[in-house]
């Protein structure tokens, strides 16, 4: 049983590859290295450099490596960029997924398909301050979120048509690192954006403090990337064990933390004391997005094990590796 991990040289993808290896699963990485880093791929794991849009190259990788399962993480994931470049996101995330599914069904090699989806499919959840379940209506507010919802539809329809066993995993807010060299190198989410400000000895920014939440700042469900990776291993194994499954699962901790709460912890855990300034709201930010993770527990026996302090300290160790003066 070999798993093709698309995007396996990326921040989350590399954690999935390492978790699969630790679980004794054989993998091959398929990555176009547009943002992936080859050194993240462990020794002994083959790396095929290519785009999922290149159906022939994907099909060759599937057959050459006798792939029987796919974990698809290769995608563009920046919300703001998706608003500026919607067609780029639809091509990479939707057409790329279609081409990959085409290759998988044409070669008939894989029986299981795990798809990287996102909490962005919910947009502003109708659950208000409550927990978001997988049955909460999906009203994405960005082209990025739209591509992930369309991806779920495509994966589900292909599974129903071909018997492919599928799981769409809706990631909430991912942070942390298993080890410094696997840390996220991007600066497009709260934790690294605060690190960047603190490293420059500038106050972090809070994008709006007039939301209907306990302290007025947005509340999110932060999930350690190690827990997220382990959810992929659990999902892959569940699909292999029961062909024809069709799972859609929230991958979160089920606990909300506010922006101000995260900034306070980041200051404390990194030895800083820079009070944030309040900036205008960021368009499209929902006030509260916190997962109910009950279905993942019931279907996979998976539950997050790490808290935000682990996420912050491990992310900070990765940040300092790339910013020695921090
Ligand atoms: C979190 C909160 C900001 C920086 C997005 C995607 C989602 C997923 C995670 C891929 C928001 C606030 C941030 C700062 C701040 N990605 N903030 N000051 O927007 O919840 O989710 O990334 O799947 O799909 O939608 O994450 O980290 O950008 O922001 O106040 O300097 O922190 O306004 O409320 P977000 P984020």
Tags for this entry?
three-stranded mixed β-sheet; UDP-galactose 4-epimerase, domain 1; Rossmann fold; single chain; seven-stranded parallel β-sheet; alpha/beta; 326 residues; 10 helices
Task: Describe what this molecule looks like in 3D.
The protein is an alpha/beta fold and 326 residues long. The chain has two domains: 2-175 and 223-251, NAD(P)-binding Rossmann-like Domain (Rossmann fold, 3-Layer(aba) Sandwich), CATH 3.40.50.720; 180-220 and 254-322, Alpha-Beta Complex (UDP-galactose 4-epimerase, domain 1). Helix content is 40%, strand content 18%. It is built from ten helices and 14 strands. It has helices at 11-22, 55-64, 79-84, 86-107, 143-162, 190-199, 225-241, 259-270, 294-300, 308-322; strands spanning 2-6, 26-31, 47-49, 67-72, 112-118, 165-171, 173-175, 205-207, 219-220, 222-224, 246-251, 257-258, 277-279, 288-289. The protein has a seven-stranded parallel β-sheet, sandwiched between helices. It has a three-stranded mixed β-sheet with strand order 12-9-14. Helix 5 (143-162) links the parallel strand 5 (112-118) and strand 6 (165-171). The longest helix has 22 residues, at 86-107. The protein is globular and about 55 Å long. The N and C termini lie far apart (43 Å). 50% of the residues are buried. The model has no long low-confidence stretch (mean pLDDT 97). The site of UDP-4-deoxy-4-formamido-beta-L-arabinopyranose has 19 residues, from helix 6 and strand 8. UDP-4-deoxy-4-formamido-beta-L-arabinopyranose binds next to helix 6 and strand 8. It is an enzyme of class 5 (isomerase). Keywords: Carbohydrate metabolism, Isomerase, NAD. Residues 3-252 form the NAD-dependent epimerase/dehydratase domain. Its EC number is 5.1.3.2. Its cofactor is NAD(+).
């Amino acid at each position: 049983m070999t798993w093709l991990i698309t995007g396996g040289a990326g921040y989350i993808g590399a954690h999935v590859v390492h978790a699969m290896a630790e679980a004794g699963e054989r993998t091959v990485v398929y990555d176009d290295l547009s943002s992936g880093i080859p050194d993240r791929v462990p020794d002994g794991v083959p790396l095929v450099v290519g785009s999922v849009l290149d159906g022939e190259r994907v099909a060759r990788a599937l057959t050459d490596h006798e792939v029987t399962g796919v974990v698809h993480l290769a995608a563009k994931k920046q919300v703001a960029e998706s608003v500026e470049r919607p067609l780029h996101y639809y091509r990479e995330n939707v057409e790329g997924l279609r081409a990959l599914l085409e290759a998988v069904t044409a070669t008939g090699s894989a029986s299981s398909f795990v798809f990287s989806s996102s909490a962005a499919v919910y947009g502003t959840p109708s659950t208000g301050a409550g927990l978001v379940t997988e049955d909460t209506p999906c009203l994405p507010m960005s082209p990025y979120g739209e591509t992930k919802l369309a991806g779920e539809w495509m994966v589900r329809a292909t599974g129903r048509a071909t018997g492919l066993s599928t799981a769409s995993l809706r990631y909430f807010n991912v942070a942390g690192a298993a080890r410094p060299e696997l840390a996220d190198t991007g600066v497009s989410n709260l934790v690294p954006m605060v690190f960047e400000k603190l490293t420059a000895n500038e106050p972090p920014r809070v994008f709006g403090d007039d939301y209907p939440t306990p302290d007025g700042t947005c509340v999110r469900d932060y999930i350690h990337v190690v827990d997220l990776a382990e959810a992929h291993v659990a999902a892959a194994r569940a699909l292999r064990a029961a062909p024809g499954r069709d799972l859609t699962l929230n991958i979160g901790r089920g606990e909300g933390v506010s922006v101000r709460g995260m900034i306070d912890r980041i200051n404390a855990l990194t030895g800083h004391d820079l009070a944030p300034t309040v900036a205008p709201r960021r368009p499209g930010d929902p006030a509260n997005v916190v997962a109910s993770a009950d279905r993942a527990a019931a279907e996979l026996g998976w539950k997050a094990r790490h808290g935000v302090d682990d996420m912050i300290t491990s992310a900070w160790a990765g940040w300092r590796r790339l910013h020695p003066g921090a």
